[in-house]
Backbone:
């Protein structure tokens, strides 16, 4: 036989070997991930449910899916073991960046920055001037609530007021 005729078979066998090798590698990593589970760890099942590990046995895992609600799952049903920060972010909505910002927030030494002085500039700016009405001082607009009702009564019945054509 010629080497040219055997070359496609050799390439096919090599590709099959590489594919099975990568699949075995993924299975080994998944088994190693499942072996690292400990009580208190957050996990995601292959069905997409998030839970906390309570007990780990040989082939099964006891998961707490809600407070005081426990379920037994096969170890193979665990899709991912999550870090504490990731689990808290997904399940409880706690963002680790916001938690760090709250710890490092600055608290003033005294209360003087939290209050305004009595009779200060802020109080004078809020008081209305003697000759001006209060709503003009605030820049408020006067709204005629009856205007739209009067326009609607004058409009013919056939005219569309919504701006769109009638779908038939």
Residues:
């Amino acid at each position: 036989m010629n080497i040219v005729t055997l070359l496609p078979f050799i390439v096919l066998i090599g590709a099959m070997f590489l594919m099975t090798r990568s699949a075995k590698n993924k299975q080994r990593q998944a088994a190693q991930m499942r072996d690292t589970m400990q009580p208190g760890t957050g996990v995601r099942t292959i069905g997409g449910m998030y839970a906390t590990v309570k007990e780990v046995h040989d082939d099964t895992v006891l998961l707490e899916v809600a407070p005081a609600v426990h379920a037994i799952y096969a170890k193979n049903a665990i899709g991912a073991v999550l870090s504490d920060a990731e689990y808290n972010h997904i399940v409880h909505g706690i963002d680790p960046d916001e938690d760090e910002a709250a710890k490092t927030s600055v608290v003033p030494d005294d209360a003087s920055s939290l209050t305004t002085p009595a009779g200060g500039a802020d109080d004078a700016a809020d008081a209305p001037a003697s000759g001006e009405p209060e709503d003009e001082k605030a820049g408020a607009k006067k709204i005629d609530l009856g205007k739209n009702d009067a326009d609607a009564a004058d409009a013919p019945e056939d005219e569309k007021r919504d701006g769109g054509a009638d779908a038939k």
The first strand starts at residue 42 and ends at 45. The mean pLDDT is 75.
